[in-house]
Write a structure and sequence with these properties.
single chain, 198 residues, four-stranded mixed β-sheet, binds zinc ion
Length: 198
């Protein structure tokens, strides 16, 4: 068992563990999610999953090369769902599931306003999957992953971070959502990491 569950922000250890286990069970309707979760669970390094209301979902990777048995921390709010924008330009042939924001008519970007094509919501479980996708990215090549966040001179690598997000969104988040939809669970999807509506 390579997941170490840590409760945060006032919830009990049992509630944290229950929320995580329930999310994994939900995600395992997707074969890709099932495979990734099982690979991470069987990994010989320990992945800390901090669970609590009000946390901002993220993965904190080890910033220095280390032999430590621990490979960073995922922070996850089991109550947080992400509203997304589905721009038709980017959208392959997929059905759409509207959410509460569907009626909002415009979005603003780069100084222009354009009609919204669709809104949707990515549930908390898939937000967790996104962060686990980052863990997988890190484990695949820790040095390269670190380099995509910080340049050798210590400066932030903005383009590198975008690359990490683009790869994770396309290779993990989208296919998992499509598999969950195929299994009968409807939810929103974003075809670009930055198509968020919150
Ligand atoms: Zn991310």
């Amino acid at each position: 068992m390579a997941f170490r569950i840590q409760a945060a922000n006032g919830i009990s250890g049992k509630d944290a563990l229950d929320a995580f286990s329930k999310a994994c069970k939900f995600l395992e309707k997707s074969n890709l999610a099932k495979e990734i979760i099982s690979d991470l669970r069987d990994h010989n390094k320990i992945i800390t999953i901090k669970v609590g209301p009000g946390l901002v979902d993220k993965y904190r990777h080890p910033t220095q090369p280390t032999d430590s048995a621990f490979v960073g921390t995922v922070e996850w709010d089991p109550g947080y769902a992400l509203n997304v924008v589905d721009k038709v330009k980017k959208r392959p042939q997929q059905s759409w599931v509207p959410n509460k924001k569907e009626s909002k008519p415009f979005w603003a970007c780069c100084g222009t306003r354009a009609p919204i094509d669709h809104y949707g919501t990515i549930p908390p479980e898939v937000c967790l999957m996104h962060e686990l996708g980052h863990v997988l990215q890190y484990l695949s090549n820790p040095d390269e992953f670190r380099g995509l966040f910080r340049k050798p001179d210590g400066m932030e690598n903005v383009l590198g971070k975008m690359e990490v997000e683009d790869i994770n969104t396309a290779a993990v988040e989208q296919p998992v959502i499509l598999e969950l939809r195929a299994a009968g669970v409807n939810m929103g999807i974003r075809w670009d990491y930055y198509h968020t509506a919150d």
